[in-house]
Amino acid sequence: MSRIQATFEKLAKSGRKALIPFVTAGDPEPGITVPLMHALVGAGADVIELGVPFSDPMADGPVIQRASDRALRHGVGLDRVLAFVREFRSTNQSTPVVLMGYANPIEAMGAERFVEEAARAGVDGALVVDYPPEECGSFAALVRSHGMDLIFLLAPTSSDARIALVAKLASGYLYYVSLKGVTGAGHLDLAEVGRKIPLIRRESKLPVGVGFGIRDAATAKAVAQVADAVVIGSAIIQQMEAAPAGQQVQSAGKFMQGIRAALDEK
């Protein structure tokens, strides 16, 4: 059983929802990444999505674009991201880590080498925004053969046929994009989320996480009423951007504690 599956099964047995923070590796500087990952776990994170910096992140809004730019200025690429995961794994063997990013860094490294090195580093899954499911069968099989999960995005515009196709290829969990826009946009439609998730669950038994528009404890709690997981990225990065130098990790952890408390309220 994968770490992702084990985590979701444990949460389901206790009636809790997964909290999945997204942070960009190497932002605001490389020395913060592993301490930040540990702080997020300490604040209640169940899975960590670690962003691979990329120069043209088409699905990401301005906040995560800035994070990628800062990381790239520090020379953080895919090799260094894997090194962060290895360091994290030296003291945490239980929290799943999912790499989220784009095809170019993987293609530059080579898909087989990426999968092999990611598995050795302790990565549990990958979400590649611009790998379409129609062309992803062999990559999905390669990822699964190394004990990892391949996670796909679904959107408000996803057709029944697209949902069914993704359901056949995906493992770990499904990531539902809650809005028609980039990450961090402010027009989350909770009613639409509530309508779409049952359609996804008709096709797949995988847990469904929701992200892209969750900004605070109130929206997180509302989404958790219908989803299995809440994904928060831009709001965490904004907390760190606003924090004094040297206080970014503490600020992110405090913010996450508030989200965790809201999700656990009965």
Brief descriptors of the model:
266 residues, alpha/beta, TIM Barrel, 12 helices, globular
Q: How many domains is the backbone divided into? A: 1
**Number of alpha- plus pi-helical segments:** 12
**Strand percentage:** 5-15%
**What oligomerization state is this entry in?**
single chain
Please explain how this structure is put together:
The protein is of the alpha/beta class and 266 residues long. It has helices at residues 3-13, 33-42, 62-73, 78-89, 103-109, 111-121, 137-145, 160-169, 190-203, 217-224, 234-242, 248-264; strands at residues 18-24, 48-51, 97-101, 125-128, 149-150, 153-154, 174-177, 208-211, 229-232. It has a single domain (3-264), classed as TIM Barrel, CATH 3.20.20. The protein is built from twelve helices and nine strands. Helix 2 (33-42) runs parallel beside helix 12 (248-264), helix 10 packs across helix 12 (248-264) and helix 11 crosses helix 12 (248-264). The two termini are 30 Å apart. Residues 181-185 have low confidence and may be disordered.
